[in-house]
Amino acid sequence: MLAISHIEYFLLQFDDKGRIDKKEWEKGMRLGMELLPSLHDEQYPPQVIDAQHRFAKRRYEHEFKWNPGRKVEEAIVAAIFC
Questions:
Q1: Per the domain annotation, does 10 fall within a domain?
Q2: Distances from the Cα of 7 to the Cα of 3, 38, 39, 74, angstroms
Q3: Looking at the domain assignment, is residue 13 inside a domain?
Q4: Which residue, among 68, 42, 37, 65, has the nearest Cα to 53 in the 3D structure?
Q5: Contact 31, 61 (CB under 8 A)
Q6: What is the rounded distance in angstroms from the CA atom of residue 14 to the CA atom of residue 22?
Q7: Percent of the chain predicted with pLDDT > 90
Q8: According to the model, what pLDDT value does residue 15 have?
Q9: Is residue 41 part of a domain?
Q10: Average pLDDT, rounded, for the chain
């Protein structure tokens, strides 16, 4: 039996020649790296929450991800298994 367990949808920006826009690609990669928790053991006061990666996630999802509607996603899955 074949099944799809998870699908990720990304937005790709293209330049005027129809190629992937390198600047936007690199911007997405840098922002994607900010999603990772810090490797430094920075000590913050207890009342401070290090939420930098949470904001980076929101920005990444807003600028580089796409959420299709249910019908579009069903059509994509149907096309895969045609």
A1: no
A2: 11, 27, 28, 11
A3: no
A4: 37
A5: no
A6: 8
A7: 46
A8: 94
A9: no
A10: 87
Place of tokens 């913050």: 44
DSSP string, 27-72: HHHHHHHHTSPPSS-----TT----HHHHHHHHHHHHHB----HHH
Residue with tokens 């826009």: 21
pTM score, two decimals?
Answer: 0.63
15: its two tokens = 């330049």
Query: How far is the C-alpha of 11 from the C-alpha of 25, rounded, in Å?
Result: 10
Paired tokens of 42: 């920075």
16 within domain boundaries? no
Q: Enumerate residues 6+ apart whose C-beta is below 8 A from 81.
A: 2
- Counting the structural domains of the chain, the total is 1
End-to-end CA distance of the chain: 14
